[in-house]
């Protein structure tokens, strides 16, 4: 199966959704109550993916709304420094703040996040602020599920998807489910299924697909049977230590293994996976390789302190794969 | 062109959306400031269509949320008396009130409505309150655009549409655009186009299609070209005194003329049109006849004081058409 | 005891708070579900008191906020017709609606009200909209408790009281407790006691004083002991069929009897009581007479269909008292 | 003049209002955009005053509401460690977060704060959560103005004041004006003047008294003339480098000079002033000394990195005064 991109566009990928601030406990392996200092990073799934893509050499842009204060300016300056185009990053004029995530790392298995997401700027992106002229300059629109959790950001994203499809921009949906801000399971399922049905590629964990379908313990078989009746051509389902599966509309199944690594914390794994997976896809390396790139990138990030800053380069990923793959190739083409 | 219904279902039509109270000025032809008494009727586009359909002999049901007070109970009792199934009419338990519409009839040309739509019960219908087991008992799900204007009613309707499609229930979208409760033109367009793309039949005025497409002075030609790329098979565009047009995916165009009549007020025309149009369609009378039934029904209602109470019977409609049509048939099949 | 007014002011009384619309069931003695027509009146306690005072010949003004629609204009036109000064009646520019009260009269003992009070215009009166130059032209500022139930109306009233006291305008507090819009008993008690402590005269039912003190089954003795430590000089406590009591800071107690009458409904009794009581006080007739005037006025209104329209004239009240009082005077001066 | 306290109570002072988190830029003298790490402290004016008082050896308690998360628990643990009684610190059960203040120190003259105050736990303290049995165990109730900025915290504080006065607990009002969360100048003035009129002692800057009176460039003379008509017996007005003035109802005026010091940042000056001023007053040292203690304590805190952690001990304050005062006594008794 080949995912078809519109070629010769200025941007490989434009991500839409939240950009916020991570405040990572400088001291690890203790409850946050005992943490006295925090280190500041840019965070938020689609922001991380844009930054990660840019570090991999892709041309990346970002559509989002940031606060008109020091935190908002930090985000913009950092993205610029990382090479992400911020010409469509909108500055909120109604006093909304940047979202915050205080991370607590008690142990590699016990990580938690203390969120500040009340009336944050990113959820105030409005449908009238989406520019068709910007979207059509990209091969891919990457949509993050959390941006669907509240109006008017929800309508901004739905509008961006309509404009993307009209201009043959490939729509990639990173499920990125976070329970806060959603009102109910049913609400989430309504929008996740609406957007999934219109997307070309979907990336998510097995748990996230269960949210999409609003039923527990779903089977991959049922999920792909449902979704391939609609727009998607490629569906990636991540299943933790079991690795990840990629399914194509043509009936192919690919399995990618998770690389064992020294885990410091679990944050950022999904975003680094997505960046590297898409990089490989865009560069025409095929799905089998893309699964390896995604997995390697995730392994590198979970062994480091931040999510955005730790995004690896192509060299790091390929070096990591070489070390882990020899002599065994972990990705198996299950069914033709 | 033939619109295909699932046959042998218990209900011909289930309407979803608002049921509210009309308070019609008992004294006409004066400003409301000088009106001293008001007469109470059941109102709301989808409620009127369910009532109108039932009066025409169809089996009709209604999904909605009503207030737990005298106004809510009046709505339920009236619907029951009119033969509409109210088993899925949900009683609000959080104190939300029934919407009100005070109508002012200064002259046939100058009618206005004073709306009470703040936090009304009908907009609190939740996605978890939609029962698939009820929807699948119907041939048609009639969706009213206003129910999309606010959460959680919006998600309830989106959920109902997903369940309807899964169960081969024909989705008919009555655009029913009302500016209040919508936040912006862009927001309306996002949801109207989303739902239109998933519907089988769409009914609306030319102005309402402009709202759907979010551009002024749209052409029918462009509208149908856009929509026939998606699910719709039949599109009806009403253009006031110029009459109405019905377009089929197969390329047919039908024109229906508006019948001249003594107009008392303009309220209720769209709802009576929809009921009679759908009646004729369901009864297999063909699109040409359906346009006549719709037009005749609208003409009868605008000459009377209420919207729901004035819904005509089949005999009244057919008698009206006979009188108006002889000796000339006003509906012309434009293009095969 | 003599309540001292600033003399020679242009207005005898300025009332502040809500003016809204009563929709009274035209058909009585049945549930509202079966009522088909409603008659429209101006309503709201302080509006009724201003109208009642004006009908009694006092110079009355009104401070409030009304909707920018037909209902708002009706209120203003009606008040003007009744002689109430509306120069400080502010027209809401943010789309808030006039409050509505649908009244149901099942029997004289079973009356209920169906309220529309969600985001109503009267509760949006802002502290910046209170003009000291207007207040200082009056002898009395009449404050209605319901206007304290929500911001910014709450702050507008608190501001008006501060300005009134600075300008030696007598502050009269009509408790007028309505449970809707208040968040909790504690919240009500906080503001009722704050305002009561700053008022010169307080009028209310025994139940309303219990709300003020936030304890059940309060005793008049304790209530007046508490309140006479602060500003009040005259406290009137109404106890239904037992009649009403007036207490002065100097230690006098007056008892007024309720006049038996043919009751149609109970609405409007308190407002007509207040108007006539204050009329008598202003005219220097003494507390004993004021209790009679209040009681007579209330009896007249409860035997009629509306609250505002039914407000009696001085002649009607005095005629009523003459008929009821002969040969026995029902008001007894209990203790000197 | 002597401020009279109820003696022999368990607590010298109970403060009511917000306890939150300060995140102080670890790197100084640069814009926050370039700051990479933040150090965490307990913050919030009344929390700082309780902590400062406890460090000075007073028995201090605190009434407030904290988040049910790591930040809330940190606040409680820190207060306990500092000896502040937290038995009436309430844990929010509705998911509200702790307020945050990111401080930016560009230079001693250019300090700014980036606030997270949207729906914070401290503003959800409810009037029903105030316990009279706790308040009556204290000599002083210290009220912070910011707690009046929103319901239900506003009503909780108004309720606490009513209960304090009923139990002869001295009410001290620290104006602590912060523009955020207040809707308008008029709203602030309404509540500031209401509470000021009921307080026994008021502390604030000249600017804050202008907010209270809602007029620019107020004069101390007019301020004290207005306030001494009501409850206050002692009024302290701070005027930056000009020092501070203390006025008594008996007509005395005291002037305290500001001590020159090496300023790192300006945060925390008011809170440390209040703690030490009240300490001296409670210990019977007289107003003249209290002004010195307040001023010295403020000077010490502005030379250090945090607000709460930097609160000085009695020894530090007295040592500081000795150094600064010799040979000149800076506090002058202006008028007897």
UniProtKB/TrEMBL annotation, chains A, B, C, D:
Biochemical pathway: Polyol metabolism; myo-inositol degradation into acetyl-CoA; acetyl-CoA from myo-inositol: step 5/7
Carbohydrate kinase PfkB domain segment(s): 12-313
Keyword Transferase in annotation: yes
UniProt keyword Transmembrane present: no
InterPro entries: Carboh/pur_kinase_PfkB_CS (IPR002173), DKG_kinase_firmi (IPR022841), Myo_inos_IolC (IPR030830), Myo_inos_IolC-like_sf (IPR023314), PfkB_Carbo_kinase (IPR050306), PfkB_dom (IPR011611), Ribokinase-like (IPR029056)
Stored SUPFAM superfamilies: Ribokinase-like
E.C. code: 2.7.1.92
Biological process annotations from GO: inositol catabolic process
Gene Ontology molecular function: any one: 5-dehydro-2-deoxygluconokinase activity
Physiological role: Catalyzes the phosphorylation of 5-dehydro-2-deoxy-D-gluconate (2-deoxy-5-keto-D-gluconate or DKG) to 6-phospho-5-dehydro-2-deoxy-D-gluconate (DKGP).
Homology family: Belongs to the carbohydrate kinase PfkB family.
Protein name: 5-dehydro-2-deoxygluconokinase
Species lineage: Bacteria, Bacillati, Bacillota, Bacilli, Bacillales
